[in-house]
Amino acid sequence: MIDLSSPIDAVGWEPEPISHTVMTPAEGAVHMSEEMREHFGIDFDPSVLPDGELLSIDTLSLTTHTGTHIDAPSHYGSKGPDGAPRHIDEMPLEWFHNPGVVLDLTGLEPGAVDASYVEKELASIGYTPSALDIVLLKTGASELVGTPKYFTDFVGLDRSAVHLLLDMGVRVIGTDAFSLDAPFTDMIGRYQAGGDRGVLWPAHFAGREREYCQIERLANLDALPRFGFTVSCFPIKIVGAGAGWTRAVAMIED
């Protein structure tokens, strides 16, 4: 098993900072005693516990797009191809445990590749995705995790590339970058230069036309073969959410 997940780390740089507070086991014992008294009318002296300790408790404040996560169709907008888009808790589990294939986008300038690039990349490795295969983009951006450059220096897919993969039956596309689209600096620059609204988040907005999920902020894709492995990336079941965290892993048979 190869861990494909980037950590949720309050120490690293994030545009929306993570808050992570820890209640120590001793504090947890007092907290439990107070909660039992308030909610259940039970008096309990935590000093009788070993070292006066019970359990630690972690409290975090963060978005569902922090760390390795899966975007649901409802993340892309309020309207989907068949009405209201599905949330992360409504997605079929069979989408998230399937054969994987890695497309190499390393060494490219920040921006987005099109369908012709994806076709050439697949031809170069002699692989055609089957329905429900999980396609992973190796951009090299995971080396920048925890820095501002992680959010601006990577390569994504344009609209044609996404639709090509969806035509093949792919329903989950992953990347080791911050976004499946080009960096916002690149997209907005091109929009301001030419006025074409179609360059703004085309990979995400493709999900308004056809239902699919993205895995963003993966890691360790350089440890994988190009194909011949299974990806397991079940999302956390957050009711009504547009995304959910995942502990993504790849499994390679001996």
TrEMBL record:
- Name the source's superkingdom: Bacteria
Under the heading PANTHER family, the entry gives:
CYCLASE-LIKE PROTEIN 2
Record's protein name: Cyclase
What organism does the UniProt record list as the source?
Streptomyces griseochromogenes
